[in-house]
Design brief:
Layout lengths: L6 E7 L4 E5 L3 E12 L2 E2 L5 E2 L2 E10 H10 L5 E14 L5 E14 L11
Parallel strand pairs: 6-8
Antiparallel strand pairs: 1-3, 1-7, 2-3, 3-6, 4-5, 7-8
């Protein structure tokens, strides 16, 4: 039986993307993306606050080059990709785990036009 590893996110870039070039000049971009689930009020009046999740996104090659030129903190992006988990040993020798979204497709969403001022 086949398995599926697919993620779809629509969120805002949390900080300026970091782009570096690895062997053979291959570009890799890394940035954080915030997705927010809006809060709501329960029937008994209890307020449930907004909940924001932060995602580490990685893009390679041509996508990374495009991100370097056009993507900035605060931009809204549509991202499709796969969940990828890796581990490394920190300076103290403790094994750390990182979960990333390896992007297959990224689209810069248009900025919302400002609402006209009430007259």
């Amino acid at each position: 039986m086949a398995s599926v590893n697919k993620v779809i996110l629509l969120g805002n870039v949390g900080k300026e993307p970091e782009v570096r070039y690895v062997e053979a000049g291959v570009a890799v971009a890394q940035f954080s993306l915030a997705t927010t689930e809006r809060g709501y009020k329960l029937q008994n009046g209890t307020e449930v606050p907004d909940r924001t999740e932060w995602h580490n996104v990685v893009a390679w090659r041509k996508q990374a080059e495009i991100i370097e030129k056009y993507v900035h903190k605060g931009d809204m992006l549509y991202v499709e990709g796969k969940i990828h988990t890796r581990s490394y040993d920190d300076k103290q020798g403790v094994k750390r785990y990182v979960t990333e979204i390896w992007a297959d497709q990224i689209e810069l969403m248009p900025r919302q036009a400002a609402a006209p001022a009430a007259q």
